[in-house]
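Thread: Newbie trying to understand structure tokens

Hi all, I'm a second-year student working on a class project, and my supervisor (Dr. K.) asked me to get a predicted structure for one chain before our next meeting. I've only ever worked with sequences, so writing a 3D structure as a token string is new to me. If someone could post the tokens and maybe explain what I'm looking at, I'd be very grateful. Here's the chain:
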Amino acid sequence: MATTLSRRKLAGNAAARLTSGESKKAVLRELAAYLLDTNRKKEAELIVRDIEAMLADAGTAIGTVISARTLSSDALMAIESFVKSQNTAITNVVLRERIDETLIGGVKLELPGHQLDASVKAKLEQLTV
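---
Reply by user tm_fold:
Sure, no problem. This is what the structure looks like when written as tokens:
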């Protein structure tokens, strides 16, 4: 019977391979196959979070920017600069964009272990409290 690898070992292996420059597609395909073979697909989201946290420790921050509309390249560069200024260990920032039409304006930024809500909605809610 094969030994089951812990979630953190799986994430550590994937993060190390990604950091070394190995193809994202190949790493993620192998990880997905392992999770399917071992009937652990419910852990996928947790493993991805662990990988993102380990990549952040290695200097690459992967985050999600949520806004009402698509952001300009200047806005994305400003957010990248902000992330780097908040943590000098971060040398590379990768941002995923997500559109949330319920936001009036502004952005939300989600990084491993950190969240920033600079949306107009949040500022209005602070005024009413």
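A couple of things are worth pointing out once you decode it. The longest helix spans residues 24-37. The radius of gyration is 17 Å. Feel free to ask follow-ups in this thread.
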